[in-house]
């Protein structure tokens, strides 16, 4: 199964801006990999919460549409809230 996530680049980076994003039901994320510049992105929490419950989400290549450009990635790490069903941050790697 293939997954496509719509995202936007984010210019504000840091703890304060990430907290503001989470309060606005957005998830901060980063895409990185060898030989490429890291890209800081954000997307809606509702876009990721349901598809991340599938096991193949963690093992297949995902497509992230960043401002109209599609990037193929794989999930590297997810940080979750301690007791709420919330995702706080996701790390993706270029494929």
TrEMBL record:
Its job: This is one of the proteins that binds to the 5S RNA in the ribosome where it forms part of the central protuberance.
Gene Ontology cellular-component terms listed: cytosolic large ribosomal subunit
Protein family per UniProt: Belongs to the bacterial ribosomal protein bL25 family.
Known partners and oligomeric status: Part of the 50S ribosomal subunit; part of the 5S rRNA/L5/L18/L25 subcomplex. Contacts the 5S rRNA. Binds to the 5S rRNA independently of L5 and L18.
Lineage, highest ranks first: Bacteria, Pseudomonadati, Pseudomonadota, Gammaproteobacteria, Alteromonadales
Signal peptide span: none
Domain called Large ribosomal subunit protein bL25 L25: residue spans: 5-92
UniProt xrefs under Gene3D superfamilies: Ribosomal Protein L25, Chain P (2.40.240.10)
GO biological process: translation
Presence of the UniProt keyword Lyase in the record: no
Keyword line: Ribonucleoprotein, Ribosomal protein, RNA-binding, rRNA-binding
Name assigned to this protein: Large ribosomal subunit protein bL25
């Amino acid at each position: 199964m293939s997954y496509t996530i719509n995202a936007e680049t984010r210019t504000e980076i840091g703890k304060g801006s990430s907290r503001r994003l989470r309060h606005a039901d957005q998830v901060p994320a980063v895409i990185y990999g060898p030989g490429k510049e890291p890209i800081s992105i954000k997307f809606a929490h509702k876009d990721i919460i349901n598809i991340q419950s599938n096991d193949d989400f963690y093992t297949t290549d995902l497509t992230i549409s960043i401002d109209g450009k599609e990037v193929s990635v794989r999930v590297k790490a997810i940080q979750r809230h301690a007791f709420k069903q919330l995702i706080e941050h996701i790390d993706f790697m270029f494929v």
